[in-house]
């Protein structure tokens, strides 16, 4: 079996040896240049058409915007009928049986009156609206700043350490110099 394959390959080799190249030959560089030129010519047509169409559209829209007439002002007559205000109701004099109402609490549900936070807010709001900002109580002062903490405590170091690297680190933190 291997002998028949060997004979076939020998025949094929002899047939290839008898072939001679043509004198014209193919210029590979020229062939590739022409192929690239033809493929670029095919692709540029679509982009040229799209570019021209978008340019024409933008020119058309721009000219329509520039050449359109200004809007004409419209005048309308609007009649508004205002009704005169109703006369205020006459106050009824209080009778001796009923006490005169002073500034009373607003109509709130009983559970809202019992929750002191809302009524204090409403009372303060009513006072500010009636008398101005001067009725506000003075603001509570800010809590005092915490005392500065020792560097040893911040660095979690023993209190009286005399190692040079610890002294160097503490000095650089206190003076603000870079390490």
In words, what does this structure look like?
This protein has six helices and no strands. The chain is mainly α and 179 residues long. The longest helix is centred in the first third of the chain and has 40 residues, at 28-67. It is flat.
Features:
about 180 residues, mainly alpha, about 0% strand, flat
The coarse overall form would be flat
Mean pLDDT: 77
Uncertain runs with pLDDT below 50, 5 residues or more? Answer: 100-105
Largest sheet: none
Q: H/E order of the elements?
A: HHHHHH
- Binned, the helix content reads 40-55%
Topology diagram in text:
Layout: H1 2-18, H2 28-67, H3 110-114, H4 116-131, H5 151-155, H6 164-175
Gist of the model:
By secondary structure, the chain is mainly alpha-helical. The chain has helices at residues 2-18, 28-67, 110-114, 116-131, 151-155, 164-175.
């Amino acid at each position: 079996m291997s002998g028949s394959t060997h004979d076939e390959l020998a025949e094929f080799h002899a047939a290839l040896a008898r072939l001679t190249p043509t004198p014209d030959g193919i210029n590979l560089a020229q062939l590739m240049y022409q192929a690239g030129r033809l493929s670029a010519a095919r692709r540029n047509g679509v982009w040229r058409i799209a570019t021209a169409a978008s340019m024409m559209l933008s020119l058309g829209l721009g000219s329509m915007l520039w050449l359109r007439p200004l809007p004409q002002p419209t005048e309308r007559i609007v009649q508004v009928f205002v009704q005169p205000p109703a006369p205020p109701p006459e106050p009824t004099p209080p009778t001796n049986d009923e006490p005169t109402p002073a500034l009373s609490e607003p109509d709130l549900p009983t559970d809202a009156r019992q929750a002191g936070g809302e009524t204090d807010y409403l009372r303060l709001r009513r006072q500010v609206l009636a008398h101005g900002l001067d009725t506000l109580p003075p603001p509570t002062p800010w809590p005092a700043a915490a005392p500065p903490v020792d560097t040893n405590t911040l660095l979690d170091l023993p209190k009286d350490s005399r190692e040079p690297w610890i002294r160097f680190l503490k000095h650089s933190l206190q003076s603000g110099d870079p390490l």
